[in-house]
Amino acid sequence: MEPQLESNLLNWNSRVSVHAKSRFYDVEGWLHNAPGPPPREVEALGDLAGKTLVHLQCHFGMDTLSWAIAGTNVTGLDFSIAAIDEANSLAERAGLSERASFVCANVYDALEALQRKRFDVVYVSLGSLCWLPDVATWGGIVADLLAPGGRLYLHDTHPFASCLDADGERVVYGYFEDPDDPQIFDSTSTYTDGEELSAIRTYEWNHSIDEIVAALLGHGLVLDSLTEHDWTAFQQFPWLEENGSGSFVVPEGRPRIPLSFTILAHAPS
Ligand SMILES: C[S@@+](CC[C@H](N)C(=O)[O-])C[C@H]1O[C@@H](n2cnc3c(N)ncnc32)[C@H](O)[C@@H]1O
User: Fold this and answer.
1) Which end of the chain is more exposed for a tag (fewer CB within 10 A), N or C?
2) pTM to 2 decimals?
3) Hey, what domains does the chain have and what are their CATH numbers?
């Protein structure tokens, strides 16, 4: 693996135990309530009971297992062994192991790691594409993971928001992908509450909306919808306001900017 991805891997391994204990993820509450997928995902994907879904960059599997609760046969893939161990343990505790499996691999090795299996749905959730230097190659992997007629659900941070500094006040990073010019961060903190991280250096890459869409169309997928949202799921900037239902929005009086986006696409039948 490239040194920059190695560094990210160390950082992600160090985040897992912090996240699993955090109020942000609230694992005990999740186990108690056993929520299925959020309504907006069900609205987008419908009833997936009995279908197969692969979640790329699944972290410790909460989003993945929410679909298992809805009866979907889920596979999560992440390069962090700490995340995969935690995901397996969460599946066990939730009684979902029969419908859920987790694989430890780099996204770029997903086809081999998943033995070239094809899925009804490829699912990618918030905070994923910024960890990948090259979105065009990712688009080919998504296309090769989809069964004929299979669908992609991608919800991620909007690349415009990723151009802003930590205060969300100034454009300081490029909008377009440049594999040779990552954003480099040294931080002991993460987006959840909890203790300091032991591995602090990360490398992130922005990809424009155009580059993400081109990555999918260029590999034969059909775009069904692209929606830009004025909300996200974490306190990306200090001035974002929690709206009472778990989303963070731009307060009144500030220009509305896109904070996340959703793409739905499908493979030809
Ligand atoms: C922000 S998390 C995804 C979070 C997910 N939406 C959630 O809240 O559970 C990003 C995940 O990407 C994984 N990741 C980063 N780079 C990766 C790579 N090259 N291959 C596989 N997984 C990767 C990290 O280990 C981490 O679990």
Assistant:
1) C
2) 0.96
3) 3-253 (3.40.50.150)
